[in-house]
Amino acid sequence: MRSVSEEPVPLHEEFIYCCGAATHVLKCGPWKDLSKDESKNLPRLLFMIIPGNPGLAGYYRTFIQALYCGLNQQYPVWVVSHAGHCKPPSDTDIKELEDVFGLNGQVEHKLNFLKKNVSKDIKLVLIAHSIGCYITLEMMKVVLSSPSIPIKATPPERKFTLFKGGVAQLLNFIRLPQERVNVGSQFSKNCCVLTLLHVSFSTANILYMASQEMMKVVERDSTTIKQNLKKLIFYYGTGDSWCPQHYYDEIKMDFPDGDIRLCEKGLRHAFVLDASKEMAAMITDWLQDDLTKL
């Protein structure tokens, strides 16, 4: 792997409807359409980001550009917003999936997006942040119980997951927008502006999803983790009050053979604000051996 490039990488941006809900997609790389099975130019692998809450694709812009460059620009890197977490692209009246804005609906939303937009011949690496990790594990449960779903795992049977806490960043952005503007990097300021622009259109959807997180995500899904342990990497923070370090200690004890890591760089929960390039560089290092086996 080469070092993460400092040069900006052009992105392809789409606003679509998926399951009847407004969806923002950012695609890094020259591949805009991965749904045509017969194409000889399809990549072997897709990296797809499942965001936290708020699930705004724009938060991950710098991260996916850095990851794409760190992967030698060989594989597409996409981020798909959560259903309804962006301004609708039009006033088109499209029937929504029942409860598409809740946690179960967000799982179906991501599976539906993959089935409609990604060829079954393309292998998949999922990178999840915060509540996106719960969504990713739920997706894996559905795939295991429904062999007809055309999603392949990445040899050597690995999907990749970031575990970084809960919905603290959502609450901070809504309560303290001015503070966010006045501190941190220029990207932090841009993220705050992005949040304020989108929250006005999707506040109810974001908060509804957050309320379901509080009620439903109350314990670790050890069964699914055990079934997929060799496919997963876990990455825990050291100063995340929404995902305290004892969660890392407990899962490390329960799954001593798992690839479970503790952050040594002091990165905060919302790494996209100021540490996207550092995170992308770590990921490329972690996956280097796996990718050489493709």
From TrEMBL:
Entries under PANTHER family matching the protein: LIPASE, LIPID DROPLET-ASSOCIATED HYDROLASE
Enzyme Commission number(s) of this protein: 3.1.1.13
GO biological process: lipid storage
Name of the molecule in the record: Lipid droplet-associated hydrolase
Keyword match Protein transport: no
Gene Ontology cellular component list: lipid droplet
Top-rank EC class of the record's enzyme: hydrolase
Any single Pfam family the record assigns to this protein: LIDHydrolase
Predominant location: other
Listed InterPro entries: AB_hydrolase_fold (IPR029058), LDAH (IPR019363)
Substrates-to-products reaction catalysed: a cholesterol ester + H2O = cholesterol + a fatty acid + H(+)
Localization, UniProt: Lipid droplet
Record keywords: Hydrolase, Lipid droplet
One function term, GO molecular function aspect: sterol ester esterase activity
The keyword Phosphoprotein appears for this protein: no
Family in the record: Belongs to the AB hydrolase superfamily. LDAH family.
